[in-house]
Write a structure and sequence with these properties.
Length: 308
């Protein structure tokens, strides 16, 4: 879509390649390509692909069948990308051809095929899941580096912050050292996190099930920096960093921006002309882009929001 006018520049119907209907992970923009994973959505018999489209024309450069699909973020470690399939298998693909160069079982989908997104640091892919474990795989070769059980069971979500790896569970945040036996329990959590965390140069930003968005310090000691409570349940699939702000949305479609530095309210805006929950937010130097679960995309002038 044209960022200024919203005019559709090109489109591609993934259903022509099988029964797939959903995009849950963030796409990669590499050179002249946009690479994205699709999954089966609500159809348990469906399948999914990884697609590389020409950014200018929408022409399919390559596609890779990864049934039942890819619902987490793709990673790039040139000259390859890494995807976590909903089967729990990591796949390394050559960027420009889509050729598979390695595969490695990293976790099991368990009760929920929407696996937490993996994280990448120094050519190592870190994968969590729902088995209480964190797995490290070499992104260049696909070989297992180590696997560590952090708790008997439950969700584990890796995130990179401050140049280090952290693993987030429903009750704790662990800082992961360069070797498997160097795991420090950084902080206890009084509420379970939800959706995808965001790491910055010195903090970890998380949404929680108690309607709060919080900033925790990324360092030797993980501590609460600030907390902001929303008026209703948060619907965004994680907090979004927009300039020097953290932006989230709640079930009333109220979009709220708080300062990354201290959590102070910067602005808020209710999007009244959409009915579906707001799930994704992005921005450029001029506009805030707001996407809903129903597929509506809206653009709002950042200057208009900042002047409120």
């Amino acid at each position: 879509m044209d960022a200024v006018t919203g005019r559709v520049l090109w489109s591609y119907d993934v259903k022509q390649d099988g029964n797939q209907s959903s995009f849950h992970g963030n796409p990669l923009l590499i050179s002249d390509l946009v690479i994205v994973g699709a999954d089966h959505g609500t159809d348990i018999q469906g399948q999914g692909h990884i697609y590389a489209f020409n950014r200018a024309t929408g022409a399919v450069q390559w596609k890779y069948l990864a049934a039942p699909g890819i619902s987490s973020d793709l990673l790039t470690d040139a000259p390859r990308i890494v995807a976590l399939a909903q089967t729990g298998e990591l796949i390394g693909l050559e960027i420009h051809s889509g050729q598979s160069v390695w595969k490695q079982r990293a976790t099991d989908p368990g009760r929920d095929r929407y696996l937490p997104s993996p994280a990448l640091l120094h050519h190592v892919v870190y994968t969590g899941g729902f088995l209480g474990s964190l797995t490290a795989v070499d992104a260049r070769t696909g070989k297992l580096v180590w696997q560590r059980r952090l708790q008997p069971d439950g969700r584990v979500q890796p995130v990179i912050a401050g140049g280090a790896v952290y693993a987030i569970t429903d009750t704790h945040i662990y800082k992961i050292g360069p070797i498997a036996n160097h795991v420090a329990r950084g902080a206890s959590l009084d509420s379970a996190p939800s959706f995808q965390p965001v790491g910055t140069a010195n903090s970890i930003i998380l949404e929680f099930q108690d309607h709060t968005v919080r900033s925790l310090s990324a360092g030797e000691k993980v501590e609460m920096q600030w907390s902001h409570k929303a008026a209703a349940a948060l619907t965004t699939h994680g907090p979004f960093i927009v300039g020097s702000d953290v932006v989230v949305a709640d079930e009333t479609n109220l979009i709220t921006a708080v300062r990354l530095s201290d959590g102070a309210l910067h602005w808020s805006f209710k999007l009244t002309d959409v009915k579906d929950p707001i799930t994704v937010i992005a921005s450029d130097h001029e506009n805030l882009y707001v996407g809903t679960q129903g597929g509506t995309l809206s653009a709002i002038k950042l200057k208009h929001l900042a002047d409120r």
